[in-house]
Amino acid sequence: MNGHRLSISALLGTLAALALPATAQTGLLVPTSKGHPDESVLALREMKVDAGISRGYARVNVVQVFENRTGEVQEGTWRFQLPPSGAVGDFAVWDGAVRIPGVILEKKRARAIYRDLTTQRIDPGLLQQGEEDDRPAGGGGPRPSGGAAFSVKVAPIPAWGTKRLELQYQHEVPWVDGTGEFRFPLKPSDGEGMTAGSLEVRVVVEDGEPVAGSPGTLSLVRSGRESTFHGTALRLAQDVVLRFRPSSTAPLIFTAFRNPKGTLPDGLALAAWERPSEIPPEKDGFFLLEYRPAIAANAPTTKTSHPAVSAVFLFDTSLAHRWNGLEAAWGLLVRMLDLLGPDDSFAVIPFDRSPAAGAPPLARALPDAKARALEFLRSRPLEPGAGVAKAVREAVSRLAQASPASARIVLLTGTAAPAASLNEARKRLPLFTVMTGEERPEGLAAASEGSLHPASSGEAEETLFLRRVFAPLPPAKAGKAVDDLPLKVTGAAAVRDVYPVMIQPPTPGSLSGWVGRYGRAAQGVSLAPKGDAVPALTATFPETALDARDLPRRWARARVDYLLAKIELEGEKRAWMEEIIDLSRRYKFVTPYTAFLAAPRSLLRPRRIQPGDPVIRTEADPQIVSATAL
């Protein structure tokens, strides 16, 4: 049996020789008849990308038209990967000339309606995080962290016909060294990209100035704050990357939205993806405080300019950690070892069901010690099972003599693990996690000081993660939502429910912030981050402010992330799950507990009202007092 075991070294060599199917591209329609992308069956005729960036937030609208190049009716699965902070806000499929928008439903209810409609030979679109069944082995509820990959079944695609798909999503834009980076992935992480019959890209930076483009990315034409691209018969082999600097150098910027009337005035300019009926009427206001910590003049610039660390790297060698995930983890491990200097100490411990026996002990980070550690890892066979918590406990024992300020545990794995078990295993030592599987890393993030998801991250996210691993540890746990206010607030605005967003903890050269609610208008309110020596900002919390219409959804998403983190740590509670579902439907974004269902509204009208059924809203003149659906 041992002769058939595949080692890390052999698998990495296989990866270098293989051209694997594309997996990390935004918007990929895979024909069911093939099981992999095949442009002779389903090809991308047209693609449009329209993005707007402001307040550290990108709102992206994607339209794709696929064509069936066969004489048979086809069906397929539309797959796409969002950035780590991405949330789907709208989804629609077209049936010929008819647009069928998606409706947010509780996921179990959406699946039940979907199955019922498909038995009637009706083909709705069901969009959800992960694949059709994301229940963990052994039953139980869905994993709260859901998945970074979204998928939707698309059928029928008529012979020699087309199918149009629309998607709108939002995500936070990472900042490094005072520069923001927007990235829209077109190039697959492996294999060849699709060919688009036509590609149109438009990116508008509303509160920043674009800077020079990045090598190896799509060449955008700049005109003021707008950057565009248009091409035909284009192989999608380069990502869209736009870097920009802020218009303002102020360390603190305040923005608010409040719509007490519940309706938007006529003539208000809306973005292409905005609909007045989708902005929930709220008497409360919402605010965002952006924070840009300054870069110190004497900031370290050499690769080894960091406090001495004692780091244990846990490398998953289970059968679940294969192909692209394994290759990404290997590359990141090599990069982290390269950042270690002679004053640092380290150990690399492979693990499957148990940590590997005979792994080199903690040693000074000299070149020969690094080479021995990597050679031991290369010889490690892939085995079933991944005892993540057991591996973390082994790392804790290796670091027993290290000072708490220097100790680091870095976990590179393709397998998720419950946050509660990781917290118990790490014994308060700092843990940094790299999740190379398709699942989102929220579960690991809830138990760590920093997390990275390479499949959906760019260069900026990776740089920020590495800096966090080697930087001095903050006094408080990073990124954890808190029940008390994380800001110093002086004034009568009735501020509440404030949550951290963007880069946490605040890092010099990055963009951080907090989003919250306020109960009443007030002037002269003082705001400042806790624990940072930055002058307070005096702000006016307005009675009415309608420009920053993204803030209600951003607040709702932050609240959901907070509840998901509590679920990861403490388990599911009905009240938390119901609140997540309510926020998802009210503010229209997909969560691990909800899904978009696209089907004609007449088919969604329930014969008997049940919990989780869709709410159908209509726009009408003020004189209309009731409506009847037929």
Give an overview in words:
With 630 residues, the protein is an alpha+beta fold. It has a 13-stranded mixed β-sheet. The chain has a six-stranded mixed β-sheet with strand order 21-20-19-22-23-24, with helices on both faces. Strand 14 and strand 15 form a beta hairpin. Helix 5 (388-398) runs parallel beside helix 6 (419-426). The longest helix is centred in the C-terminal third of the chain and has 20 residues, at 551-570. Mean pLDDT is 83; it is low at 14-24, 132-147 and 476-483.
Question: Topology of this protein?
Answer:
Layout lengths: L7 H10 L10 E4 L10 E13 L2 E12 L5 E8 L5 E9 L2 E9 H13 L5 E5 L19 E9 L4 E11 L2 E2 L2 E6 L10 E11 L2 E3 L10 E3 L2 E10 L4 E7 L5 E8 L22 E10 L18 E7 L6 H17 L5 E7 L11 E2 L2 H12 L9 H11 L8 E7 L5 H8 L4 E5 L6 H4 L4 E3 L6 H12 L16 E4 L4 E8 L9 E7 L3 E8 L7 E5 L9 H20 L3 H14 L6 E5 L2 H4 L26
Helix pairs in contact: 1-3, 5-6, 9-10
